Amino acid sequence: MVLLQPDPFLNELTSMFEKSTEKGSVWVTFKRSSLKSKVQRNKMKTAGQAIDYRCLIRATYGNKTISTSVGAKEHQRFQASYATVLKAHMTALKKRERKDKKKAAEKKKGGAKKVKTDPMVIA
Fold first, then answer.
1. Which of 25, 8, 91 lies closest to 60, judged by CA?
2. What's the CA gap between 11 and 80, in Å, rounded?
3. pLDDT confidence bin for 111, thresholds 50/70/90
4. Which of 24, 45, 57, 88 is spaced 20 to 30 A from 80 at the CA atom?
C-alpha cells in the first residue's frame, strides 16, 4: 500500500476509474485514524495531549492499493476534488426504473380482479 499526498492520490484514483470502465471495480474506503500505534495513543492520553485524528482514504483496483491521509483543515478541499472525480466517472451507472405507486399498491393488496358483467343479461 502506497501512502500518497492528496493530489497525486486523486490523479491515481482517476486513472483507476478509467481502467475500471472496461472491467472491474474500484473500492474506496474512508476511516478515522490517528496514524499512531495504540501504545503511542495511550501514552498521549495519560500525558494529557490531544490526539490529532485524520481521515485515512484507501482505494483498491485489482491488486493495486493506494491511500492518503487528510487532516481536518484540508478535508473540505479534498472532498470537493473527490466529488468532481466521482461525478466525472459515474457514467456507467444506470437510472433506476421506478414503478407506478398505484400499480404497486394494487399488487400488494392482492388486486381484487374486476369482473365485467353484461348489463343486458338479467338472470
1. 25
2. 14
3. low
4. 24
Q: Express each pLDDT in 12-63 by its tens digit.
A: 999 999 998 888 889 999 998 887 777 777 777 788 887 778 899 999 999 9
In angstroms, the first-to-last Cα distance of the chain is: 83
* Number of neighbouring beta carbons within 10 Å of residue 19: 14
78's CB contacts (< 8 A; 6+ apart) are: 6, 10, 70
Helices 75-88 and 6-20 meet at what angle, rounded to 10? 20
pLDDT band at 122 (very low <50, low <70, confident <90, very high): low
CA distance 89 to 111: 43
Report whether 99 contacts 51 (CB < 8 A).
no
User: How many Cα atoms within 13 Å fall on the side-chain side of residue 118?
Assistant: 4
